[in-house]
Amino acid sequence: MTQKHQLARTLSGRHINMIALGGTIGTGLFLGAGGSIQKAGPAILLVYIITGFFVFAMMRALGELLLSDHDQTTFIGFIKKYLGPRAGFVMGWTYWIGWIIIAMAELTAIGQYMQFWLPGTPAWLWELIFLGLLYTMNIVAVKAFGEAEFWFALIKIVAIIAMILTGIIMVVGHVRTSVGVTQLSTLWSHGLVADHGRQLLTTFQMAFFAFLGVEFVGIAASETQNPIKTIPKSINSIIIRILIFYVGALLAIMVIQPWTDYSADHSPFVQVFSNIGISTAAGIINFVILTAAASSLNSALFTTGRMLFSLSPKKSYLAQVNRRWIPLRAITASTILVALAIGLNYVFPEDAFSLVTSTASATFIGIYVALLVTHLKYRRSADFKQGEQHFKMPWAPVSNYLTIAFMLGIFVILLCSPATMGTTIFAIVWFIVLTVLSILRVKNN
Q1: Could you read off the pLDDT tens digit of each residue along the chain, which spans 445 residues?
Q2: Cβ distance 264 to 194 under 8 Å?
Q3: Which whole-number Å values give the CA distances from 442 to 86, 279, 373, 432, in the listed order?
Q4: Which residues contact 227 (CB under 8 A, 6 or more apart)?
Q5: Which of 197, 262, 204 is nearest to 420 (CA)?
Q6: Residue 92 half-sphere exposure, CB side, CA atoms within 13 Å?
Q7: Cα–Cα distance measured from residue 217 to residue 213, given in angstroms and rounded to the nearest whole number
């Protein structure tokens, strides 16, 4: 690979670890956990553990692929290599478009979160400011992006650890609140499953979407200093992070306050801290959620720029890096497209963005399944049999088939749920259209 087409490798292990960690903690935990608790009750803990296990299995498959060929700039390159150019085309552009849409939705959310403190200011102004700042970080240096993501992730971690420590202290001290004495039995005293389990299956999709973006470490991997050391360490620690940050936080939430008292419309973090007498809870959690949205937008700019760089023909305008080995043109083009959200907010209501975002999320299941099939193909190839093997996926191929079945099961749940049926059908149409375009592309070439 020539220097003109080569990405920088300036991200350290510290950056990659935080990027991987930030990818598993999003607004789904801070905002969406209330709805999950209401639908599943304490059984939501088991839902997150099961979902986390299969997400971890998918990441192990990704990790083995990443370390098999360091010249691939994104994991989509492996899909193209082992499943063919048409599959690479479909999944590559799906991933790029999906992250563009997510970025637009996160940008819209940032404007709304800022109005919590400054309701008199226009949302588009804050959207423009944040987009400009994060774009600048992404084009100055890869290390600047890494530093920003490090601190964004750290803020989220501090908030979650504060919740867990609060729960431990209150249980040990039997602290009395407005809802009674805090004790471990609060977790199961109102039952272990909500609504006799009628909505339990639907919470799997909510847990899955909470982990959306965990594969982002696969994009950052191409720019780490020592991938053989940092990638295995980051991926192996995912299972620990799931247990501590998701299961630990949800456990603390349901111990401090009975799970039956939570509202799906408000952050459970805000509800807990408000009920124990912290009057500034809403402001603090709003800051954390703002940070989570900014982190997602920051990652989206990084990802979409690298994806567009990777998808563009080698000699094209967008497939070039600057003197700092950053795909400046591809990042700029993606950012301009994301910036359309600022104008579109005047035309479309907020629900339109939520609808499109859920459509993009449904397509990620297709990408993850393709990634697992790619790993199966790799295991049968000469590259695996003759090459140096690093970080082998445990129990393959059985673990591949089980994880694929789990992912397809979530897709069926999405398709059968009235709230997500329309967006899932739209995602299917999306794949069909891109497949037709890939066929036409091959014929024209």
Answers
A1: 444 455 555 566 566 666 656 656 766 677 778 888 989 999 999 999 999 999 999 999 999 998 888 777 678 889 999 999 999 999 999 988 888 888 887 888 888 888 889 888 888 889 999 999 999 988 887 777 778 878 888 888 888 888 899 899 999 998 888 777 889 999 998 899 988 888 899 899 888 888 887 887 655 655 666 778 878 887 888 777 777 888 999 999 999 989 998 887 777 888 888 877 777 888 888 898 888 888 888 888 888 888 898 888 878 888 888 777 788 999 999 999 999 877 766 665 555 555 656 677 788 899 999 999 999 999 999 999 887 777 899 999 999 999 999 999 999 998 988 878 888 998 899 899 999 999 887 666 5
A2: no
A3: 8, 61, 22, 16
A4: 66, 67, 70, 221
A5: 204
A6: 26
A7: 9
Cβ-proximal residues to 271 (8 Å cutoff; 6+ apart), any chain: 34, 257, 261, 262, 263
Residue in the structure block whose two tokens are 């789904």: 28
d(CA 52, CA 208): 8
Match 């939430």 to its residue by tokens.
253
With CA atoms as reference, report the closest residue to 390 among 176, 174, 229: 229
Here the tokens at position 351 are 């629900």
Residues 234, 56: Cα–Cα separation, whole Å = 11
